[in-house]
Give the backbone structure.
Amino acid sequence: MVLPNYEAVIGLEVHVELKTQSKIFCSCSTAFGAEPNTQVCPVCAGMPGALPVLNRQVVEFAIKTGLALNCEIAGMSKYDRKNYFYPDLPKAYQVSQYDQPICRTGYLEIEAEEGKKRIGINRVHIEEDAGKLIHQGAITTSSYSLVDLNRSGVPLLEIVSEPDLRTPREACLYLEKLRSVLLFLGVSDCKMEEGSLRCDANISIRPRGETRLGTKAEIKNMNSFRSLERALEYELTRQMEVLEDGEEVVQETRTWDEGQQATFSMRSKEEADDYRYFPDPDLVPVVVDQEWVQRVRESLPELPDAARQRLMEQYELPAYDAGVLTMTRDTLDFFDECIRHYDDAKVVSNWIMGEMSRLLNQHNLEISASQVSPSALVRMLRLIDEGTISGKMAKTVFEEMFTTGKEPDVIVKEKGMTQISDESALEPLVVQVLEANPEVVEDYRGGKTKALGFLVGQVMKATRGQANPKLVNQILKRHLDKS
Amino acid sequence: MELCGLTVHELKDKLKKREISAADILDSCLQRTHQVEEQVKAFITITEETARETARVLDEKGEYPGLAGIVCGLKDNLCTRGVRTTCASRMLEDFVPGYDATVVKKLKAQQAVILGKLNMDEFAMGSSTEYSSFYPTRNPWDLKRVPGGSSGGAAAAVAAGQVIYALGTDTGGSVRQPAAFCGVVGMKPTYGRVSRSGVVGFASSLDQVGTITRDVTDCALVLNQIAGYDHMDSTSANLEVLDYTSSLVPEIKGFKVGVLQEYFQEGIHPGVKETIKRALLKMEEMGAIVEEISLPHIKYALPTYYIIAPAEASSNLARFDGVRYGLRDLEADNVEEMYINSRSLGFGPEVKRRIMLGTYVLSAGYFDAYYLKALKVRRLIKNDFDRAFEKYDVLVTPTVPTAAFKLQEHARDEDLLAMYRSDIATVPANMAGLPAISVPGGFVDEMPVGLQIIGKAFAEDTILRVAYAFEQHTDYTARKPSLGVK
Ligand SMILES: [Zn+2]
């Protein structure tokens, strides 16, 4: 979407839940989906006298992320209290990092329409998540709300971009890229639907050529990549219409309503809270020395950009394929495992991007949850190469593998799907088809070579698709050219 | 002498010689409590049954290591599993923790006989125990006077013979000031020496658990049991803990004692001044080198304290919102109203005052001028002390510039600052995180006066030695309160 007279200026604030075993300040589990308030202790419930003790793994994950985003890592990790009242916030303050974030000034490269583009990272800081409110009915009419503190104290990173994004599409590309980096690092599950990846956007517009920033709106509650793009598109149009009407954009927080596909004002800047940040006296700053940073740097895994480059250079895959295969760590691992046992990278890529991805989407699954192992896919590809099954049959076999988890050989056997490549078995069928279709034979001999296709089809039909089409072709030709 | 009037070490001797049982000590303390509690009002909750059970089990075994069998009390801001912990506030009137504070765990592991939870100023904010939301505690030396605060219940109970020793907390003098007013020994260890886990937070960077005992030996014995690193408290110090009884040497010849001049000028009661001067002469007689010194920034300690402590308190006390525990207004129509009503009903006037003060100094536009500046001054105060300790082994002051004042004496709002000034000499040790002890230093008008000895960080052994030597050369700890009205 392009506005002819205006330019959009977009920055994203992304919150990711870190997948540490335990919470940031206590030993409670961070596992998702448990019964409400079963992963809670005096510390994360904010009971009187309970004190926080920092989980160092959180700092390690933050350093990892900072390095992957080309940030400067602070020598000290200091914690502040952000004070506000809300029923899901048990201590009535959130431990966060205010003036000294652990990581600053980095960048992330995206593949924008006009080519590679660097999006600045302003800061990455550590904080704790709040609990969750469960309203009885709609929030506005609910007579009571319940508090679930399982999520309270789950470690978060807040990753704040510079306002370098210029279109809703770019914002999406940035978020996708960020997600793949975090997945490659193994620091988060990044599941938007479970809330382990959340995104707010700051967006303003300005006339093209203008260098000053317009008044921004903060957009919240976008729960998927699609809603991010739609919300930003909506907001662009809205702000443009405001300006075109000769009015001014108001600085405010707006929420995206998925049902109505529109943003609505939540509160204006005048009502903004004073969070009274101050250093948390219950926590001591953690020293992050160069040695620690170096150790983390050396342990960094291959990141999406490097992997993409590798796939393009080593396997000569097209950029598009390389991009798709490096969207998540699990997809790349799947590909890499296949390619260790199978030479044709493009064929593997086609299957992963094609059938595999179609079925995953259809069943709403991640590749890690797929029942098809890399070795099973490779075995199936071999069956095609050996001529045991046709490419078309393979699709049926693959689908069966996907839903049942059975080995391809077993499926082929059970279904009697073996391809007929035995000449002596096919010979009589060919003769039968030729005898039954004398006019077509005449047509062919009269120069209508397309008639051959019809005859192949008839033989395939007679074998319920199991005949090796190549072989049928050869036998037919031999008979037709004979006399 | 009745058992309830003896010290920990005297009782330990008798237990060891099988002259008495744990039940005997408990009976004596209970009997005393029945006699005097009506007047003193030291307790909020008495746990007679569990105390009896602990004593019974101990007597069956017949072994009394450590603090086993000695009756004690706990200030009511130390969390006790299964026993309500109120902080003397309506807010937590019915709050029963599911966990013990680390210091309580340690005492329980020692099979200490815990007689109950002691009165205090609400959330430890106050210097007289008049700000308890339930009732004031009275000074056993003169029932018309306050016992000091905020650990007033703890100091009064020890002085009155209801318990043999008690644990309190000290944020700006809350152990030392009541100890001085009640004629007992009060120690605030170095910040980080004793775990704060399970201590209901007032000002996290200043709070420290302290001991209230009848003499310095008992102080060492109790400190031995509660000091040490705790992985549950990030601010606790991972340092070796000495056996403090080894510092009980009655000899301080050649010790360099610095006398902080600032506390002998305006505002000090002339009788207190005379008493402390006599105490210093005594130290000189004992061979110590006593010199006057002045710390340039110490005059800012009290005003700075009243920025930092309320700031932290405003945040620490925000969790009392009626959502999960504590008082909740059930009539409120929405969550906002519920917060406002619960906190308006739950907190008393002094707590509200400090929450407002703290909220103000942390607010946008005031943060730099107040809170940040206060942190800088705090650093300067600490530097002053560091320099002083290059030259002196200990620093001394009167613990409080006056003896115990009368109930209601500082009740009017305009007298509030006078009450705050009661902590003027004790606050600096909290600001600098240093260990300090108050020992009985004499009497003025038959009311006890405390001598404060401040040491280097983690030099509890040094102040214990000086305190012990002083105690051995005087007889102030031997005097007992009359429990009457003067
Ligand atoms: Zn927990």
Remarks:
- DSSP finds 15 helices and eleven strands in chain B.
- The interface with chain A takes residues 77-79, 85, 87, 92, 95, 97-99, 101, 196-201, 203-205, 231-235, 311-312, 314-315, 318-321, 323-325, 335, 339, 359, 362-364, 367, 371 of chain B (CB under 8 Å).
- Residues 302 and 424 of chain B are 6 Å apart (CA to CA).
